[in-house]
Structure formats: structure tokens, C-alpha cells
Design brief:
49% helix; five-stranded parallel beta sheet; alpha/beta; 10 helices; 5 strands
């Protein structure tokens, strides 16, 4: 079994899990519209804009221009995003905090726009604990470009063969594997704990 010396965790979905049932059922009562919004704005287009290093304001303007009939919901996303945060705590954050407390070498990555990440650091103390956090958009690369994984490895002095990459996107996991990293798909705390035990990390 490969010795895992470093853990790289993409934290986007862990901090803000876009749940189509809560709490936007109040803001977007129509179920079909809510599903469209989460599929096309929150988890797809929105993340791409953040990977490009947009600010919230820029991303919002671009999304409204592309989806003008959804302007009210797009603006509500920014206005009420903190309401979504409590629904993210399915135990995954606790796992990462536990690994850090055990002295594990954990690096956090985020696709948040830089201004959003600044806000998030004020809400989540554990973001100050890892030895490094990068905002993907700042390097001008959109995952799963293999260069972004090499860049992260070089930046933090990681050996890809001894690094475990955790991400909620299958494409990103495959991209990390192609760059020589060990990688697992994040689907929730229970599965993450199983994967970490299987790899001898927990």
C-alpha cells in the first residue's frame, strides 16, 4: 500500500453544500426551477466562473447576462448564501479537523472567488490551520487541467505518488490521477471515512 504523506482536500462542497431542498425552498418554491438553478448556476456555471478568478460581483453579472430570466434567484444566491452553510456539516469538516489535530499534513484547496474565500475564513476557523490554501482562479487554470495539480504539488512541495487528493468532482479526481496523485471521490463523510481507513490514513 502506498504511504500517504499528504492530504489535499478540495473544500468547496464541504463548506457550502448546495442542497436543492434547503433552504432555497423558501426563496424558490417551484421544485423544477429550484433543481434547474442548482444544476446550472450553483454547481456548474458558478464554479466555473470562480475557477476563473471572478469576484462575486463579476460572476453574478455574467450569470445574469447569460440567464436573464433567473436574475432574482441569482441575486438571492449571493444575498442568502450564509443560510446554506449549516447544511454542509455532515461530518467531513470534523474529519479534516481531526486529521490536522493528529498532525497530518493537510492542504486545503478552494474554488471560491477570492473575496468569497476572505469571508469564509472569518466563518470557519479551521481554514487558518492547514499549511496552505490556494484559490484556483488565481493561477488562471480550470480543473481538471493536469497543470493545476502539478502546480499545487510544486507550490506545497508534495510528492504526487504520496499525496491523496479528495474532490467532489469525478473529472477532477481523474485529472489528479492522470497527474500521478492518489485520489478519491468525495460524496460525504461516511464514504470519506471508509476511503481514509482503506488507505491507512485513519
Amino acid at each position: 500500500m502506498t504511504q500517504i504523506d499528504h492530504i489535499v482536500f478540495d473544500i468547496g462542497k464541504v463548506l457550502i453544500h448546495y442542497d436543492p431542498d434547503l433552504p432555497f425552498s423558501r426563496l424558490i418554491p417551484d421544485e423544477a426551477e429550484r433543481r434547474w438553478f442548482f444544476d446550472n448556476v450553483c454547481t456548474s456555471d458558478w464554479n466555473i466562473e470562480q475557477d476563473r478568478g471572478r469576484t462575486w460581483q463579476e460572476a453574478e453579472a455574467l450569470l445574469i447576462a447569460e440567464h436573464p430570466t433567473h436574475e432574482e434567484n441569482i441575486r438571492n444566491f449571493r444575498r442568502h448564501w450564509r443560510e446554506m452553510v449549516p447544511h454542509a456539516y455532515d461530518g467531513s469538516v470534523a474529519i479534516m479537523e481531526g486529521l490536522i489535530a493528529q498532525g497530518r499534513d493537510v492542504t486545503m484547496l478552494t474554488n471560491f472567488a477570492a473575496d468569497t474565500f476572505t469571508e469564509a475564513r472569518g466563518l470557519f476557523p479551521f481554514l487558518e490551520k492547514p499549511r496552505g490554501v490556494t484559490v484556483s482562479g488565481e493561477v488562471g487554470l480550470i480543473k481538471p487541467d493536469e497543470r493545476i495539480y502539478r502546480l499545487h504539488a510544486d507550490t506545497f512541495g508534495l510528492s504526487p505518488a504520496a499525496t491523496l487528493f479528495i474532490d467532489d468532482s469525478a473529472k477532477n479526481v481523474e485529472g489528479a490521477k492522470a497527474a500521478g496523485w492518489n485520489a478519491v471521490l468525495f460524496t460525504g463523510a461516511d464514504r470519506l471515512a471508509e476511503d481514509l481507513r482503506r488507505l491507512g490514513v485513519m
